[in-house]
């Protein structure tokens, strides 16, 4: 008991400090931790939909347009609840671009390989757009590609594209005079939804903007298009200026029935798109099967690093092909009729999870996106209902949750942890980076299986409508003492192994079954 009281006294001193350093006490090292999440006073989320505009996408775009109301229904319910609870509604903004950046297409004619006309050159004698040109190539016999950057499709739905106009290449799009950035602001009459004309007009405009057509590039560069869209917004370049808002989370939603095929914009060294060269698969699909050193597509890790390095909260959603998502599309093996397995999409989703981003995945073959996929994506847009801490606290009594304003002053110190109070611990799934509400199999049950929410876990849930639910411009901050060692202990021998000394010098406090404890000194001296 004396050791426990000494531990708590030190915890109290630490929580009162602003300088959170490691505090050695003999062999004991108390590990401080903190986590915070802010809700910008400008907006909660900027949402970018990247929609495949290649052949066979018309019905999928229509599905997205028709069911988008389910996305808004979910967000409107949260807005109404916030109004009922005396909270401000939040702003979110939605924009659309397509997957068309360029196509490095295998050239027409028999002289379509390196050196066919002139040694060391690819001679593009029948380019999609004149004039005739050539470029240096290697090795002899390699397939030659003609880089195309303009819409040229026939027998397809033009949608928002114009024949011979440049591919969107990350530009935000809108039908006619529709805004390219749809502003769902707090000033809208959310209390009157679904009867508010302004909100319904925005829903209609999204349904028009998202039907980008099916005359786009058959070499779908979903990931490169999204990167370019964000880069243009960050630079303030038209038409993307004004999309990204200070302090806002970025949510990117990729929608496509074939996998990403982003590759460098280079005749030589880039991937040449060849739809029928590899017995049932195109050159993009075949490239993903090669060893990494031989692949010509831009590495998926480059895109994970880009979005993870923006310095703002980030979440991702994929409406993609793949039998792993529960819809086969009548395609054995996940590929047929213009649908291809989303290997690179799946890899990127895993990479995002590994860097702590929340990820939603839905099947492009779902006949109704409104039943589950779009409401799940809406959860990424909503203000956070809690925190996912970097490490597990050593105990509930050494965890403090508080709301602070933009100047850093404490507005409210939250009562808890207790499921009947303002905040509590919840069960964390194995999905890194997911929000507490996404992680909670049972929102009042923690990692120890205790239903009162007091036993510590890395996920914290906040009572909806309570004083700890942050307003725009406020920050939810958690200060706590973490388990020692990181990840906790099962026995006193674990403590000795990680921290030194003998097992008799330590006690592993709080360990029970699979639940880890924290190391405490048995004596006041080493």
What layout of secondary structure does this protein have?
Elements: H1 2-15, E1 23-25, E2 28-38, E3 45-51, H2 58-84, E4 92-98, E5 103-106, E6 121-124, E7 133-136, E8 145-148, E9 181-184, H3 197-209, H4 222-235, E10 249-255, H5 283-288, H6 300-308, E11 314-320, H7 343-354, E12 358-363, H8 373-381, E13 386-388, E14 399-404, E15 410-413, E16 423-426, H9 436-439, E17 459-462, E18 475-482, H10 492-499, E19 506-509, E20 518-521
Parallel strand pairs: 3-4, 3-10, 10-11, 11-12
Antiparallel strand pairs: 1-2, 2-18, 4-9, 5-8, 6-7, 13-17, 14-15, 14-18, 16-17, 19-20
Molecular structure report:
With 526 residues, this protein is α+β, with helices and mostly antiparallel strands. The chain has three domains: 10-39 and 385-482, no CATH class; 45-102 and 148-260 and 304-311 and 321-354 and 371-381, no CATH class; 108-143, no CATH class. 22% of the residues lie in helices and 20% in strands. The protein has helices at residues 2-15, 58-84, 197-209, 222-235, 283-288, 300-308, 343-354, 373-381, 436-439, 492-499, and strands at 23-25, 28-38, 45-51, 92-98, 103-106, 121-124, 133-136, 145-148, 181-184, 249-255, 314-320, 358-363, 386-388, 399-404, 410-413, 423-426, 459-462, 475-482, 506-509, 518-521. The strands form six sheets. The chain has a six-stranded mixed β-sheet, with helices on both faces. Strands 1-2-18-14-15 form a five-stranded antiparallel β-sheet, with helices on one face. Strands 13-17-16 form a three-stranded antiparallel β-sheet. β11, α7 and β12 form a beta-alpha-beta unit. α6 (300-308) runs parallel beside α7. The protein is globular. The two termini are 18 Å apart. Mean pLDDT is 82; it is low at 1-30, 331-337 and 430-450.
